[in-house]
Amino acid sequence: MSLTINSVAMPEPKQGGVVTTREKVWSADTGRLTDGDMYGTLVAIKTKVAISWPPLTWAQVKLIEAAVSDIDTPWSTMTYTDMTGEEKTLTVYFGTPTYTSYSWADGIQYVTDCSVDGIEK
Q1: What is the rounded distance in angstroms from the CA atom of residue 18 to the CA atom of residue 52?
Q2: I want to staple 97 with a disulfide (CB 3.0 to 4.6 A). Which of 56, 71, 87, 116 is the partner?
Q3: Mean pLDDT per 10-residue section of the chain, whose length is 121 residues
Q4: pTM, whole model, 2 decimals?
Q5: What is the DSSP track for 18-45?
Q6: How far apart are CA 2 and CA 86, in angstroms?
């Protein structure tokens, strides 16, 4: 699995750590009729990629954080291997990343449960 953000290689996601969702976007006038039938127009299908990593070092977390939390770059280019095995490139924004600090053993702290969503523009 390859994953780059703005052409920078990211740490490899954990096994099962890339979940792709194809979101249907409907027109603003979409709704329900009195009999319950839906009306509206499907205007786009956008991709959301939920990424999670195995335990990481501080240096790896800094690399991810720099890529997904840059206030000066709200839109990023993300290239990844999708659910069909093809390499895809999307323009995305990133949701809120999460990090869990784990283990201060031997003076080295690892970060577990690192995850973020890339949402197609």
Answers
A1: 7
A2: 116
A3: 92 94 95 95 97 93 95 94 91 95 74 94 96
A4: 0.86
A5: EEEEEEEEE-TT-EE-TTS-EE--EEEE
A6: 11
